Amino acid sequence: MAILIKEDGTETKVKPANGKTFSLRELQLFVGGYIEQIIIPDGRKMIVNEEGKIKGYNLNTKASTLSTNFDIFGDVIIVDDNEVN
Q1: pLDDT tens-digit profile of 16-66?
Q2: Beta strand extents in 1-85 (DSSP E only)
Q3: Could you tell me which of 30, 32, 47 has the C-alpha nearest to residue 84?
Q4: Can you say how many angstroms the Cα of residue 70 is from the centroid of all Cα atoms in its chain?
Q5: What is the helix, strand, coil percentage profile of the chain, to 5?
Q6: 2-5 sheet: strands from edge to edge
Q7: pTM greater than the 0.90 cutoff
């Protein structure tokens, strides 16, 4: 099950609308725009807004800690490889 991490650090479990895999549109809605995928150390994918910093989104401290190499701005969704096409 995927986890949505909001800018403020709150986490919510989320499921794809079809119950299997997230569509591109769903992922874009979660992060508020164009997406970028980052592989985090545990092997899952972190889906972020590729323009989060440019758009002025707040630093997502929790997501940045998970990514280890990047400052992440805005909401993110963490998914297993089998949850995305």
Answers
A1: 999 999 999 999 999 999 999 999 999 999 999 999 999 999 999 999 999
A2: 2-5, 11-14, 35-39, 45-49, 76-79
A3: 47
A4: 13
A5: 20, 30, 50
A6: 11-14, 2-5, 76-79, 45-49, 35-39
A7: yes
